[in-house]
Specification:
alpha/beta; Calcium-transporting ATPase, cytoplasmic transduction domain A; Calcium-transporting ATPase, transmembrane domain; Rossmann fold; 3 domains; eight-stranded mixed beta sheet; seven-stranded antiparallel beta sheet; 32 helices; 21 strands; elongated
Length: 843
């Protein structure tokens, strides 16, 4: 149903009395429904403890305890359930923070009780309360409009439709929608669990476990190796039934196979994300969604509005240029316009500050809309008489206004009013000069027909014949940190696009002042409206500044960039930004912005800390790059042990490692290094490879060569052990302790030597990855190698991990083999042998 956009001053409403409020709350007609903002402690423990893989490890450790192998059982519990404990502690901390955030950003409601407005928590609303809604406010309960107010609401959170819905007296409003323009009152008709949006609000506000792209990749890897482990467990069970293996041997093998599942990857990514979130909170960046950290690391395009981001949104009226009337008359009319509008904004507030006037009641009003970019009020002859005499008790400091000519008064962007208002070349030059100086320029005009503000369907329309009355210039202070912030975006490899509702030349001027660059390419919303899809896409990709853009065009630009494979972050602070925020990969809102923008944002910039964003983007890139490196080490280790299990079974009919031996390879070669890699990771957009290409490029060459070298070392010492047997002795008496200890040593050496290849400190190590120049990773690898030999040298530690001390010549021999492996692996990468063999460029 269509309604006229006329708005009168809201008629006085008394609302409920305190006695009525207490009676209705006692009768169970209150809105005190509890919306769960996070998981319960019980859910956190259940989801972390009772998983399939944890049950497998628990069963293995329990069997080891029953077999008397207490040290093996304790090791499994420490390694696996230690990670579970860290996850539980981190998620409890996240729950507490999420509850605090929900309480901090819980929307407030303005109610009228006993004729007075007061701000209350939504839980204090009762059935029959009268609530006031202004632009940016959220409708918190279901009801119907009462009084003379009019407003436009965004119900997209409920319906998915982005169209603005006009509302007048008698029309229903639903919780979860937002007021975009206008001011109105509504009576609460449904509260608590009876509201239309109750279930939707629960889904929107409750904790959501959103998996990031890296988490999805890691889950895929874990599930893949879980399937491989299940297959190997079945083979072990068959071998137990068909051969003379003891139950102890079977449990040992089952434990080693269970270690193939890289559960530590989840721990690594949890710690890295937690560390990043803590760092960002210190930079006044509040993470509201779990996937925000991952999104930060992928952003390559940042879309932002001029107002509130580049500028402080402190609008000041600088100049008033009268057209055809005296300056004092124009100032009086502007003051009446600004003080009489029921819906205010920064522009009208700046006018009211410079041109104070008494408030009167318009007979019609069109609130400002980002789509229309103009607002209007209409006065009849009665309004004019109202202003011609001073009312009793009026402020004597406000000058008495001259008689007001009845009609419609319009204030808006010159481009939007030009079709109805004739501007001389001098006026156009004055407007152009102001926009080139970075000033916001608006036109004030008049139409004698006060009924020309709506069409036959009752929708707002611009009067056909407008008489220009004045041109106004406004200034907006540039944020002190704007230039440094834009430089930070450039350093992070992020392209900045400014999408604004202001004049394109005004935005360009401010962008240049902020240091965005002299060769800024600009396009206007009117030009975009005339383009076909291909031209629109080309403009979205190539232009830097977009001016006079409607909210729908802003959302379309974000969609277009995403369709072209760009990862888009959008910053907004007003209700007109909600549509584009919901379309972006990452939604960022200012703390001082509207409730609607904060409600849909993934990240909120506390204290409006625009300057903290470059640091946040770099932090996200650090986390992403560190996790990718960790994933490579885990996968090399897991693939290698898997291949060794198959290879030794085929070649020797033996099992390569005991449980504790597998654990020390995992801890020294992968576990401890991954504690430092995410912390020291550097920012930057790395080459975007698919997971398959990443595996082929780095992981497969390293895995195959480590497996080959490790198998040769194992076979060599196994042959030596067989040759040392007395003649005609049973091969079943072969002592596998020395071959397995040699295998553990070569695996630890190769995995630690892989770290300099992963983060090359010098050009010598450059092969599979670009030069890092950071020597800390290599130092950690050297320290861990020393720790391994310390474990071997100390008898209690050596016995705990079931290792045998080899001779010094044997360790030197294995070390030389590891060095030869380094040269072979580097040659494989540098000659691109695998690339040529596969017929693909994987670099």
């Amino acid at each position: 149903m269509n309604h006229p956009e006329q708005v009168n001053t809201i008629a006085p409403l008394m609302g409920l009395t305190e006695t009525e409020v207490l009676a209705r709350r006692s009768a169970g007609q209150g809105n005190n429904v509890s919306l769960q903002t996070s998981r319960s402690y019980r859910q956190i423990f259940q989801e972390n403890l009772f998983t399939f893989i944890n049950m497998v490890f628990f069963s293995i450790s329990l069997v080891m305890f029953l077999l008397g192998r207490f040290s093996d059982g304790v090791l499994v519990v420490i390694v696996i359930f230690g990670g579970v404990l860290v996850n539980i502690c981190q998620e409890i901390w996240a729950k507490q923070k999420l509850d605090e955030i929900a309480l901090l950003h819980r929307p407030k409601a303005t109610v009228i009780r006993e004729g007075k407005e007061r701000t209350v928590d939504p839980s204090e609303i009762v059935l029959g309360d009268i609530l006031v809604v202004m632009p940016g406010d959220q409708v918190v309960v279901d009801g119907s409009l009462v009084g003379d107010g009019r407003m436009e609401v965004d119900e997209s959170l409920l319906t998915g439709e982005s169209d603005l819905i006009p509302k007048v007296a008698g029309d229903p409003v639903y919780s979860g929608s937002f007021c975009v323009s206008g001011t109105a009152c509504y009576e609460a008709e449904k509260v608590g669990t009876e509201t239309f949006a109750f279930k939707l609000m629960i889904g929107a506000r409750a904790f959501r476990q959103m998996l990031t792209p890296l988490q999805r990749e890691i889950n895929l890897i874990i599930r893949t190796f879980l399937l491989i482990s299940c297959f190997l467990w079945i083979l072990v069970c068959i071998s137990f039934l068909s051969r003379s293996y003891s139950l102890n041997d079977v449990i040992q093998r089952a434990a080693v196979i269970a270690g193939l599942v890289p559960a530590g990857l989840l721990l690594a990514i949890t710690l890295a994300y937690g560390l990043g979130a803590v760092r960002m909170v210190g930079q006044d960046v509040l993470i509201q969604q779990a996937n925000a950290v991952e999104s930060l690391s992928n952003v390559d395009v940042l879309c932002l509005d001029k107002t509130g981001t580049l500028t402080t949104n402190q609008i000041q009226l600088e100049e008033i240029h009268a057209i055809g009337i005296r300056d004092d008359e124009l100032r009086s009319l502007l003051g009446i316009f600004a003080s009489s509008a029921t819906t205010t904004n920064k522009t009208s507030e700046a006018i009211a500050h410079v041109c104070p006037q008494h408030k009167i009641s318009p007979v019609l009003e069109v609130p400002f809309s980002s789509a229309r970019k103009w607002s209007a009020v209409a006065f009849d002859s009665g309004s004019g008489q109202e202003l011609s005499a001073r009312s009793p008790g009026a402020d004597d400091s406000i000058p008495l206004a001259p008689p007001l000519t009845p009609g419609a008064y319009v204030l808006g962007a010159p481009e939007m009013l030009m079709p109805a208002a004739s501007l001389t070349p001098e006026m156009q030059a004055y407007i152009k000069t102001g926009t080139e100086q970075g000033l916001r320029v608006v036109l004030f005009a008049y139409s004698p027909n006060l009924h020309s503000l709506q069409d036959a369907l009752g929708q707002p329309c611009l009067p056909p014949h407008l008489t220009p009355l004045g041109i106004l210039r406004f200034s907006d202070q540039l944020r002190p940190e704007a230039q440094a912030t834009l430089d930070g975006f450039a350093a992070a490899g992020i392209e900045v696009k400014i999408i604004s509702g202001d004049n394109p030349q005004t935005v360009v001027a401010l962008a240049k002042q902020a240091g965005l660059g002299a060769q800024v390419q600009v396009v206007s919303g009117q030009e975009l409206a005339r383009m076909d899809e291909a031209q629109f896409t080309q403009s979205a990709l190539t232009k830097t500044v977009f001016g006079r853009i409607t909210p729908e065009q802003k959302a379309r630009l974000v969609q277009c960039l995403r369709r072209q494979g760009r990862y888009v972050a959008m910053i907004g602070d007003g209700v007109n930004d909600v549509l584009s925020l919901k379309q972006a990969n990452l939604a960022i809102a200012m703390e001082s912005g509207s409730k609607a923008t904060r409600g849909v944002a993934d990240i909120v910039l506390l204290k409006d800390s625009f300057g903290a964003l470059p640091h946040a983007f770099l932090e996200g890139q650090c986390i992403r790059n560190g996790i990718q490196d960790v994933m490579k080490l885990f996968m090399v280790r897991t693939f290698c042990v898997t291949l060794l299990i198959f290879a030794t079974a085929i070649v020797t009919d033996s099992f390569p490692l005991e449980n504790k031996q597998s654990a020390i390879v995992s801890l020294i070669g992968v576990g401890f290094p991954t504690m430092f890699i995410p912390i020291w990771a550097k920012p930057g957009l790395l080459p975007r490879r698919s997971m398959v290409r990443s595996i082929l490029h780095f992981i497969i060459p390293a895995t195959l060569l480590i497996t080959m070298v490790a198998l040769l070392v194992y076979l060599y010492y196994l042959v030596v052990a067989v040759l040392d047997l007395p003649p005609a002795s049973d091969l079943a008496r072969v002592d596998y302790s020395v071959p397995r200890s040699a295998l553990v040593t070569i695996l630890v050496m190769c995995e630690l030597l892989l770290i300099p290849f992963l983060k090359p400190p010098t050009r010598f190590w450059v092969g599979g990855e670009p030069l890092s120049g950071d020597r800390r990773y290599s130092v950690v690898a050297l320290i861990l190698l020393g720790i391994y030999f310390l474990i071997v040298a100390i008898p209690p530690f050596r016995r705990f991990f079931e290792l045998t001390y080899l001779s010094i010549p044997s360790y030197i021999f294995i070390g030389l083999i590891a060095v030869e492996w380094c040269f072979l692996l580097r040659a494989t990468w540098r000659t691109k042998f695998l690339d040529r063999f596969l017929g693909a460029d994987l670099s």
